[in-house]
Design a protein that fits this description.
CATH architecture of one domain: Alpha-Beta Complex
Number of helices: 17
Number of strands: 49
Strand content: 25-35%
Helix content: 10-25%
Distance between the termini: 74 Å
């Protein structure tokens, strides 16, 4: 693009435009863009730190204050008034006004102002009304401490900043997108803002976390006090109703029921979750009812909702504000709170200073007026010739009784000292006193009024001398008047990271063409392997001893002669692979056991030593570290004395994927046959339950519930008087507050329970063993009367408790050995009577029951006929794997 110069009538003698007047297009773009960017940043998108408001919000509040008469005003009228100050159209003003009204702090709305839960819009501005709240009139406005500027058309005066004595910016939150930057400050709790401001004034370190009107739960581990680079995770509150339904009770910040349901349906359409129906029952409270597909776990579904929908959001705050009126700064919410708290203190000082001057003026004139009337100075002016003489006569009369600061005090002078000199305006005001008032003047009441003014002035001076304490008391009063009903709605928590692969619904099927070497979801005419998710990884092991992990797709070539294919989970420490292979270099048969915990996708790894001619002779995949016994048959032509022997994989240590293994034989092997399936050599998995989230884990977090091996069950005794005996599911989520006992089930366990039988009206003790044989089903072991209540339950072998109960007006207690009180009976029996009526408390006297963990034996016992390996290696004793 060529540069152009603007046309000018002034040219030099040579006919050329002066060089100083040349304006290039590049320079014009730079100047105009900077002007535009500065305007958007300062005048539209970013709030100032002084009052926490954007210009449109400030002008709306100023217009409402001018209109304020205690009654509601049509929003259309408010918009019209605001347009005198804000030259950007009624739509922008109306949207900003509705947004402020929905935050329930500064504006008192009336009518249909929309629904922030469902996303419904407000009614037209001609139908709804608004007025300032009492909080706004007290905290936001004071014309005496406001700096003013001329409005855009020069006809009005508008505030540069409102003298706000509260951190509105942090209470309401804000978002704005400007040119080259943005701001996002999350809302905080009203009560906490007041309390943390008091901490700042007391010299303590404040702590402040977001709080959202929609509730939910927030993880502030990486909040970084709202600075750039920080983030928070926000979750909806999801409740499990039963095995068929879950319900969303609270929304994440920024979501509506409509947008959240759309994200749930989208995840279902993609197969990430499996649901049957979504129903929005939201009215005053949020309720999104989700009906699950048959056989789908509610706990897994809740995790999947967090993983694949907007039920969990990650929000990055960015506290950008205008400071000093001319420049954006990136700060923290604590910086903002500190600034506003000190600003509030300064504004309160200004108000006290103004009040002090007003009181001094009132006291000054009240003293002059009292003497003027009581000493009848007004009679001295009856013979005055003109007004100037009147003023002189009054001044002379007052000087007899008052000592001005500019006058020198003489010895024995008993005149009353004044706070300032008597001015001509003071004397003129005295002349304007009406005769009627003079005639009714009450000297006693005048003295009372002067005393009250002096007392009030004394208090103001005291407050100025103790300004910090005065500001603290002001915040405490603010909290008392306006803090009721503004409790924290968003719960603080630390979220466990949801493992996406663990909760993804099985929305695909994995197939394999072993001979041609293809795996994928699109090979529907080939061998079916397993159901899986479209985000899973697939592990493939070939006959030549090469291992590969690849992302599942429709069809992927991984190499011919596949002997093992399965879904692979990163970090899996339990799945153990057992193999015998022929080393092509030495001719030896080697045996090895290994895990595959981490790997690089689509890279080939040699499980043999990599020599040419190496191949697998036997392979099995064992989900819990099982070690089988195999029979090795050597070639008849070999020189070995023993040509038929057993090899026990339990004798091998589990090593890394790249280990060479141990020598099994130096002679050629004819075939390898599974003889006996083995048990796990890894020992029991030690499991804990997080006492906050109720999730099972292996990270030693929370309550230890036992060591679990293959086939072990978990026993849960609930506080509603039911028990469940079920298989261990690491994705299951329990309610720690609703569980009396959770731990590994032992068939010799005896459950001891103390409960109130509602129908009969007395307390019973029963002891029983688990007799039901249906895992995963809940059984009620106390009566189903509405008033029945389980006081205590344990599996301790010798439980001892102290029970307390009321006898007339006194409380009595006794110690009961439950094992001696009643024998073990059936689980449906009522039990023996302990007390007539209800108990007040039951206290356990034993140490808490801790499950024991059996360590793995040095060598697994034989005799099991349970097949080893995965679904594609369904081997039985006597079965041979034909690998060559």
């Amino acid at each position: 693009m060529t540069e152009e110069t603007p046309h000018t009538n002034e040219e030099n003698q040579g006919g050329q435009a002066p060089e100083d007047n040349i304006i290039t297009l590049t320079g014009m773009y730079e100047d105009y863009f900077l002007d535009y960017a500065s305007y958007v940043i300062l005048e539209r998108a970013v709030p100032t730190i002084e009052d926490g408001l954007k210009p449109v919000q400030r002008r709306i509040l100023h217009a409402l204050n001018e209109m304020h008469d205690g009654r509601y005003h049509k929003v259309a009228n408010v918009i019209g008034q605001t347009m005198q100050y804000h030259p950007h159209g009624d739509a922008a003003i109306g949207d900003a006004l509705v947004n402020m009204g929905q935050k329930d702090l500064l504006i008192d709305p009336q009518g249909n102002w929309g629904n922030t839960l469902t996303g419904d819009r407000a009614a037209a501005s001609r139908y709804i009304e608004a007025r300032l709240t009492k909080f706004a009139t007290e905290v936001v406005f004071n014309p005496q401490t406001t700096e003013w500027q001329t409005s855009y058309d020069g006809r009005k005066k508008e505030p540069i900043n409102l003298p706000v004595k509260f951190p509105l910016l942090l209470a309401q939150g804000t978002e704005g997108i400007a040119v080259g930057l943005s701001t996002r400050i999350l809302p905080h709790n009203f009560q906490e803002l007041c309390k943390e401001s008091i901490k700042i004034l007391q010299g303590k370190k404040p702590r402040l976390y977001p709080d959202f009107p929609t509730g939910g739960t927030i993880d502030v581990s990486d909040y970084n006090w709202g600075k750039r680079g920080g983030k928070v995770k926000i979750r909806a509150t999801i409740e499990k109703i039963d095995n068929k339904f879950v319900a969303v009770r609270e929304l994440p910040y920024g979501m509506t029921t409509t947008s959240l349901i759309e994200s749930i349906i989208k995840a279902n359409d993609k197969g990430k979750i499996k649901i049957k129906k979504v129903q929005d029952n939201t009215a005053a409270e949020v309720e999104i009812l989700i009906e699950l597909s048959p056989g789908i776990s509610p706990d897994v579904t809740i995790d999947a909702l967090y993983a694949f929908t907007n039920c969990e959001l990650s929000v990055s705050p960015n506290a950008c504000i205008i400071m000093n009126g001319d420049k954006p700064y990136f700060v923290s919410v604590l910086d903002i709170l500190q600034h506003i708290t000190l600003q509030t203190k300064a504004l309160l000082k200004m108000e006290l200073d103004i009040k002090q001057k007003e009181l001094e003026e009132k006291l000054h004139f009240a003293s002059l007026e009292k003497v003027f009337i009581r000493e009848r100075i007004y009679r001295d002016i009856e013979e005055a010739g003109d007004f100037t003489e009147v003023l002189d006569l009054i001044r002379a009369g007052l000087e007899k009784y008052f000592l001005e600061p500019s006058s020198k005090k003489k010895r024995g002078d008993k005149r009353i000292p004044l706070l300032r000199d008597i001015t001509e305006d003071d004397i003129v005001r005295l002349t304007e006193i009406r005769i009627k008032r003079i005639s009714k003047y009450n000297s006693f009441k005048a003295d009372e009024r002067i005393a009250a003014l002096e007392e009030e002035l004394k208090q103001v001076k005291f407050d100025l001398e103790h300004l910090t304490e005065y500001t603290i008391a002001w915040y405490e009063d603010l909290l008392k008047k306006y803090g009721k009903g503004r409790d924290r709605k968003t719960k603080l928590d630390v979220f466990e990271k949801v493992k996406v692969a663990a909760v993804a619904a099985n929305n695909a099927k994995l197939y394999v063409d072993r001979k041609e070497g293809f795996v994928g979801m699109g090979l529907k005419k080939e061998e079916f392997v397993t159901e899986c998710s479209d985000i899973d990884d697939v592990i493939i092991i070939r006959k030549d001893g090469v291992l590969t992990v690849t992302k599942i797709s429709d069809k992927t070539f991984v190499g011919k002669n596949i002997i093992h294919v399965a879904v692979w989970k990163r970090g899996d420490e339990r799945t153990t692979y057992n193999m015998l292979y022929l080393d092509g270099k030495t001719g030896r048969t080697m045996g090895k056991r290994f895990n595959v915990r981490s790997i690089t996708r689509d890279r080939e790894y040699h499980l043999t030593k990599g020599a040419k001619g190496s191949k697998l002779l036997y392979f099995s995949a064992n989900p819990n570290g099982e070690a089988e016994l195999v029979n090795v048959l050597l070639s008849p032509a070999s020189k070995a004395r023993v040509k038929d022997f057993d090899f026990d994989f339990a004798e091998l240590a589990i090593k890394g994927r790249s280990s060479g293994g141990n020598i099994v034989t130096r002679y050629p092997v004819r075939k390898v046959t599974l003889k006996e399936a083995g048990k796990s050599t890894l020992g029991a998995i030690k499991i804990w339950m997080d006492e906050v989230s109720g999730r099972l884990n292996t990270e030693e977090r929370g309550q230890f519930i036992g060591g679990f091996d293959t086939g072990d069950l978990i026993l849960v005794i609930n506080k509603d008087g039911s028990y469940e005996r079920e298989e261990l599911d690491m994705n299951r989520k329990y309610d720690p507050k609703g569980v009396w006992f959770i731990g590994k089930y032992d068939e010799d366990m005896v459950v001891s329970a103390v409960y109130y039988e509602g129908e009969r009206g007395y307390t019973l003790v029963k002891r029983f063993q688990i007799e039901t044989s249906s895992p995963g089903q809940s059984f009620q072991f106390i009566s189903d009367s509405r008033t029945s209540k389980l006081y205590y339950a344990t599996v301790h072998p010798n439980p001892e408790v102290e029970v307390s109960y009321r006898v007339k007006r006194a409380t009595e207690s006794k110690v009961v050995q439950l094992a001696d009180f009643i024998d073990v009976k059936g689980w449906k029996s009522l039990g023996n009577r302990l007390h007539e009526g209800k108990l007040t408390s039951v206290k356990e006297l034993n140490e808490p029951f801790v499950p024991t963990v059996k360590e793995p034996a040095a060598k697994a016992k034989r005799g099991s006929t349970k097949p080893a390996g995965g679904d594609d290696e369904k081997l039985r004793p006597g079965q041979t794997i034909e690998l060559f």
